[in-house]
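Assemble and predict.
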Amino acid sequence: MKPADKKRVLREMLFARRFEERCYEAYVERKIGGFLHLYPGQEACAQGVMEAARPGHDYVITGYRDHIHAIKCGADPKAVMAELYGKETGSSKGRGGSMHIFDVAHHMMGGYALVGGPFPLAAGIAKGLKMKGSDAISICFLGDAANNQGTFHETMNMAKLWNLPVLFVCENNLYGIGTRIDRSTAVIEQYKRVSGYGIPATQVDGQDVEIVYDAAKIAVDHVRSGKGPYFLELMTYRYRGHSMSDSNAYRAKDEERMWSKRDPIIILRDRLIEAGILSLEVYKSMDTEILDQIENQIIKFAEESPEPVVTELEKYVLAENDPYVRADMTPNLNRGAR
Amino acid sequence: MAIIMYWEALQRAHDEELARDPLVIVMGEDVGVAGGTYKATKGLYDKYGPERIMDTPISENGFTGLGIGASFIGVRPIIELMSVNFAWLAMDQIFNSAAKVRYMSGGQLTAPVVIRSPGGTAHQLGAQHSARMEKVFMGVVGLRVVTPSNARQAYGLLKSAVRCDDPVFIYEHELMYNMKGEVPDGEYFHPLEGSEVARAGRDITLFGYNISVHWCLQAAEFLATHHGIDCEVIDLFSLSPLDRAGIKASVSKTHRALIAEEAEAAVGVGSEVMAIINEECFFELDAAPVRVSAKNVPIPYNHTLEKAAVPSSKDVVHAVLKMFGKS
């Protein structure tokens, strides 16, 4: 990573942290409903990988912990927050919610709530990119627990069989909802599980964004050069529970303390201060700016945006006026043939 | 107008759409080198190659999801699920991804996939190869379900399904692939919504779809010849959405209704058509509508038991005679 980029990367990770913390507050205030899965602790994963990729050009798909991945693709944070508020100005017009953030214009192909569901979708996007001769790649971000679904194994097999340009990023935060990985998974190191499919795989520290970036660079280059799929495992930790409805009682306090010392933002901040690139004062003013932006632009936009109208409840179920649907519209060259 | 077999009609539709659009692909078990279990993709592998005619591993949820993902960026996959019994395995991707993605993305993404699959009770294939699952698919919002009863529909519905921007499930029948029928020589698109009057009549409407249209037509001939009952037969080629207006128009004319279905009665096409009749034209009825459906059992292996489990044209005849007080 270039030194000039490091300050921006730090700022973006801090933004991600503050954005998610503000979501937490809005949830407690009942401004956000449903299930809410937050990203604090894992910021270096999406950040490092997307630094190595081409945001807005490469295609990203993920699970329900998706706000930050969408923003990394180029989604407007205002539209993401408005979606969480269920507003018409939201990224999915208030129809999706926290778990279903889409921004197709920026190639954010969505967050999906079925654990492991995006695996084959990501491979399918890669198939399409290959058919079109595109130099874009497909990137699938999922957690470790998704690897216990059949879709993981089915997709790894097909991705290698057809040599598809897809990068699987496993954000291993050690818990599948409330069950620790060693209680649910026979082989704990996830990268080892894909070796049976002939897919190159690496495991690195997911808390250090520079390490993530370096590993992701190799992975992205591999996939983009036409060598087929790649699997990157990032060891990370989420500070909050699985979702807001999770009391987080299943984790040892010692373990949480240990991981809090491996905070991705603090690691990079201290490194930059030590290198003389950043001062604590500049960092604090950066934080103040971010908090101001979130409150006075993003939250304000979400608060002030209109609700969807009930008369449009059934919009977006099926295509509107598709010519192949109704007899009077179907473009028959041989009308009346019976 | 050529007379060709149902599978030939499907093969022709595949071939024409593949030739027209390089983003149309075919996926499924044995669709390529082997030419398709029911020959619907015969010869296409040699013509279009392995990148477009993809023999998949036996991973129904995986390859269906892969096709759906490809459709997100403009590919038009025609996915063959070898038997509808195996479609259970792909339901997560069909229901949770394809059917919902347009809505939950606020209209940004669509999944224009075609999923074809044969169901029905065939030749002593046992409980796990004889399911009739149309009732499950037609209950899912965001998915179109069509079911061709003849070669013309098989051709025209597949053509339209490939071009339509919605995910379309095409329910075929294992016993119908060799059925012959007329298909227009020119290109023909069958609308994905509506119903067809397969036989016009005055005294009662027999609703059928897929194979049960043929039971209804046979029953209608018999009833006209031997009992002077003039049956109208309505072909419900679109199961989702069902043709409310067509159902209402016919029942308002004949004042009697029977629904013939190869599936078990519960939560099925028959119960849905009855509900529509209740909602649209209850006071037009001269008699309570009747369902002719399968017995409530997994399909047995034994030939005699298998025959007894699913209805036939004789059951339709008996039910109609009973409605007219003639049995």
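The two ends of chain B are 42 Å apart (CA to CA).
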